[in-house]
Design a protein that fits this description.
The chain is mainly α and 144 residues long. It has five helices and two strands.
C-alpha cells in the first residue's frame, strides 16, 4: 500500500515531467493577459514608449483645445482621442517572440511619427510580468 508521501511524490514527479509544456502555457497566458494593458498604461498614464522615452511633450495649441474640450489631458502625447488605437491592441506570438499589433488603419502613420517603441513594453513592466510568471510557476508546484 502506498503512503500519502509516496502518492504526493508521484504527483510532484508528474508535474515536473509536464513542467516544460505547462510552463509555456503559464508564460503565454501571463503575456497575453498583461502585455497590451502595460503598453496602454505606459501611453495613457505617462505618455511613454517602451524605451521609457516621452513620446512628445504637449500638443499643438489647436489640438490641445480640442482635447481639452473632450476632457482629455494635454501635457504629453498619449495617442488617445477616441480610444480606438489602444482598444485594438492584440498580443501576437511568432515562435515565442511576442509583439503588439493594433487593428487601426493608421498604425503605420503613428509608428512613422513616434517610433515602433509605442507598441513595446518598458523594462519595468517586463520585470513585473516576469515576476507574475515566477509567482504562477511557484503556484503551479504548490498546487501539486
Amino acid at each position: 500500500m502506498k503512503t500519502d508521501f509516496e502518492v504526493m511524490l508521484k504527483e510532484l514527479f508528474g508535474k515536473v515531467k509536464d513542467f516544460e509544456k505547462d510552463f509555456e502555457v503559464i508564460a503565454d497566458t501571463v503575456i497575453e493577459e498583461d502585455m497590451a494593458d502595460y503598453v496602454r498604461f505606459q501611453l495613457l498614464e505617462d505618455g511613454m514608449d517602451g524605451n521609457d522615452k516621452l513620446i512628445q511633450e504637449g500638443y499643438s495649441p489647436a489640438y490641445a483645445l480640442r482635447r481639452s474640450a473632450k476632457g482629455l489631458q494635454v501635457e504629453y502625447v498619449d495617442l488617445y482621442f477616441t480610444g480606438k488605437f489602444q482598444n485594438s491592441f492584440k498580443v501576437m506570438d511568432n515562435a515565442n517572440e511576442y509583439f503588439i499589433e493594433s487593428g487601426v488603419d493608421y498604425e503605420e502613420h503613428l509608428i512613422e511619427n513616434y517610433g515602433e517603441a509605442i507598441l513595446e513594453v518598458n523594462e519595468q513592466n517586463l520585470q513585473t510580468m516576469f515576476e507574475r510568471i515566477k509567482n504562477e510557476t511557484i503556484k503551479y508546484f504548490l498546487d501539486a
